[in-house]
TrEMBL record:
SUPFAM superfamilies: lambda repressor-like DNA-binding domains. It comes from the Bacteria. This is Putative addiction module antidote protein. GO terms for molecular function: DNA binding. InterPro entries: HI1420, Lambda_DNA-bd_dom_sf. The lineage of its organism: Bacteria, Pseudomonadati, Pseudomonadota, Betaproteobacteria, Candidatus Accumulibacter.
C-alpha cells in the first residue's frame, strides 16, 4: 500500500488576522538578518489573504508583488511597509534585553 502525502503549506493554517500577525512576528524574530524570513512570511500571508486584493490595496501590480515577496525577491523597504500597512499590521520595535 502506497501512502500519499500532501505538501505542508503554512497558508492552510493562517486563518485569522491574529494567526497572521503572530506568524509575521515569529518571522521577524527568527529572521537571520537579511530579511529573507520576513519576506517569506509576508509572501505566505499575502497568499492566505489573497494576493490580488493585496495588490489593489497597496497599489502594486500583482506580478510585481509576487516577485517582490518570492524567495528570489528583494523588495524595497517602502514595498514591505505598504504590504504591512495593507495587511492591517503595525511594525514596532522593542528593546532586546538579551
Amino acid at each position: 500500500m502506497t501512502e500519499k502525502f500532501s505538501r505542508w503549506d503554512v497558508v492552510d493554517y493562517l486563518k485569522s488576522d491574529e494567526d497572521m500577525a503572530l506568524y509575521l512576528d515569529a518571522c521577524i524574530v527568527e529572521d537571520p538578518g537579511d530579511g529573507s524570513l520576513v519576506r517569506a512570511g509576508l509572501g505566505d500571508i499575502a497568499r492566505a489573504k489573497g494576493i490580488s486584493q493585496l495588490a489593489r490595496d497597496t497599489g502594486l501590480a500583482t506580478e510585481g508583488l509576487y516577485q517582490a515577496l518570492s524567495a528570489e525577491g528583494n523588495p524595497e523597504f517602502s514595498t514591505v511597509m505598504k504590504v504591512i500597512k495593507a495587511l492591517g499590521f503595525r511594525l514596532h520595535a522593542e528593546a532586546n534585553h538579551a
